[in-house]
Specification:
Blueprint lengths: L1 H27 L4 E3 L4 E6 L4 E3 L5 E10 L3 E5 L8 E8 L9 E10 L3 E3 L4 E12 L3
Antiparallel strand pairs: 1-9, 2-9, 3-8, 4-7, 5-9, 6-7
């Protein structure tokens, strides 16, 4: 057991060294924002019934998704619904990233003919907090 503990301790020490050097490398670049290391996952739930045809991207209303201020949103590319995949989120009014936003529809790309019912989970989105910094 002590050999395994020593091995894991070595891995953690190396990870901490890399984390510090990665942070220094990132900070030396000229970016306006850094995305946080941990994201929050939210579900994209259909708010209406919809018949979809294979290969035709179409908008679908979803339950409102609140996007926290100063955060990036990434739609998870792993298909959750059996008929297709969400490829984007849409706001009623585009706002700057620094303000709280609400997405109320999504772009759905079906890869098979099918039906989306109200309450179906269409996909997932990850919200990454951003930290503003200036050099």
């Amino acid at each position: 057991m002590p050999i395994v503990t020593k091995y894991i301790k070595g891995i953690r020490t190396e990870a901490k060294k890399r984390e510090k050097s990665d942070w220094i490398a990132w900070k030396s670049r000229t970016f306006d924002f850094l995305a946080g290391r941990h994201g929050r996952v939210g579900h994209l739930v259909a708010k209406e019934d919809m018949v979809c045809k294979r290969g035709e991207a179409q908008p679908v209303e979803i339950e409102p998704v609140e996007i926290p201020p100063s955060s990036l949103v990434s739609v998870v590319p792993y298909a959750v619904h059996k008929a297709g995949i969400v490829i984007g989120l849409v706001d009623k009014m585009p706002l700057p990233t620094e303000l709280p936003r609400v997405a109320d529809s999504a772009v759905f790309f079906p890869y098979t003919d099918g039906v989306v019912k109200k309450g179906d989970v269409l996909g997932r989105a990850v919200y990454f907090p951003m930290e503003e910094f200036r050099e």
